[in-house]
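Quick question: what would this complex look like in 3D?
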Amino acid sequence: MLSVVFRRPKKKDIFISRCINEFMIIGLSSLPIVVLMSTFMGGVIALQTASNITSPLLPAYTIGYITQNSTILEFSPTIISLILAGKIGSNIASEIGTMRVTEQIDALEIMGVNSLSYLVLPKIIAAVLFFPVLIIFSMVLSIFGGWISLLLSDLCSTETYLLGIRTDFKVFNIIYALTKTVVFGFLIASIASFYGYFVKGGAINVGRASTQAVVISSICILIANFILTQMILL
Amino acid sequence: MIEINTISKSFANQKVLSDISAVFETGKVNLIIGESGKGKSVLAKCMVGLLEVDSGKVLFDGRDFIAMDREGRTTLREEIGMLFQGAALFDSMTVEDNIMFPLSMFTNMTKAEKLARVNFCLERVNLSGRNNLFPSECSGGMQKRIGIARAISMNPKYLFCDEPNSGLDPKTSILIDALIKDITTEYKITTIVITHDMSSVIEIGDNVIFLHDTKKWWQGDNKSIITTDNPEVLSFVYASEFMKEVRASMLENRG
C-alpha cells in the first residue's frame, strides 16, 4: 500500500491544495483539544508533584523540574498523540471508509486517479509535519498550566517554578520527543487510512473500521514509544 | 469497441461469471440485463478493472486492459467515463468542482476553459446554473445527471452506467435514457448500461445481453427481445401480467 501512496502526485497544485486542506483538518482543528488537555494536565502534574513532595530535603524547584521532564518526555508526545489517535484516527478512517462504501474511491480510480496517493499522502504529510507543532504547543501550555495552578494554589513561587523548569533542561529531550511525534503522526495517519481504504460493506463496517483504526494505532503508538525510548534514550 | 473474451470471476467458492464473451460496439447503447445478484455489476467492474478477473480478456479497441500494468490502466481509464449506481459524487465538493475535477486532474485547461466545459456539460444534462450546489442538496435524479455530466466532461470514448435509473421516477428515467442515447450517438461513444429497467431495454437497447446462471444466456436487441422465445428471457422481461399483455399486443401489431 505505502509504495502506491508515495508515488509522485499527478498535479502539483492540486496536491498542495489537498495538503493545505489536511493541515486545516488534521492540524488546526486539533488545536483546541490540545490546548485544553495540555493546560489542565500540566496544572494537575504540577499540583500532584507539589502535594507529594513532603521531604524537606527535596528543593522546591523540584516541582518545576518534574513538570518539565514529565511533559516534555512523555505527556506531550505520547499522551497527546494517543488523544489525537482517537480524534484524527477515527476522522480519517470514517472519511475514507465512507468514500469507499459510497463508491467515491471507485470513481477516482475510474478517472485514472491514484486514489491512495490522492487521499492518503496529504493526510500523512499533514500529520507528520503538523504533529510536532501541536506537541510543541502542548509542551509550552503544560508548563504554563503548571505555573498557573501553582500560582493559584500558592504552593510554589514563580521564580522557584521557573528555576525548576530551567534545571537540567536538555534540548535533546525536545528532539527525542519530536522524533517520537513524527513516528506517531505517521502511524496514526497510515493505520487509519488503511482501515478506511479497505473497508467493505456499509455504515456498520465504517464504524467498526474507525474503532479498529483507533485501537490499533493506539497500540502501535505504545509499542513504538517503548522501542524509540530504548533506541534513543538508553 | 469493447470486446470481452471468456471472462470468469468467482468470490471465494461462488462462481459469479463463467466464460462470458461479447462485443460492445461503438455508437451503440449496449445493455447488460439480468436478475439481481447475477453478476451484471461485477462484469462491468471487471471490465474497468475495479475487480480482477479470474481469467479472460477485456479489449478496448484492441488494447488488452487485463494485461496492462497500473500505469497503462491509469492512462486508459482517462478515456473511460462511469456513472455509478449511487452517482458517487464527491460530497465535499460542489457540483461545479465535481465536474471540473477530472479536467483539473488531467488537462492543462485554464480556469475559464474548464468553467466553460463544466457549463456545457451541465447544460447537456439540463442542469444549467446549478454549479454551486452540493450533492447533498440535489435530488437523486439530479445527482445521476451530475454523475453523467462528470462522466462526459473528459469526452470519454467509453461510458459505463451502472443502473442509471434505479430509484428514479418514470419521467426522470426516460430523461436519463434519452440523455444516454443522445450522448452515445452524438459523440460516438461505446456505452454499456447495466439495468433492470425494462422500459430502458425497449427504448435504448441497441444491443442487449442477458446474464443468467453465471453465463451469457441471450444476446439481441430491443426488437428481438420482443420476439424471442427464450424461456429465461421471457420469464425475466415479461414477469408481470401487464408486460405479458404488452408483449402480446406488440406481437399482434407486428402481425
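Answer marked as accepted. DSSP finds ten helices and ten strands in chain B.
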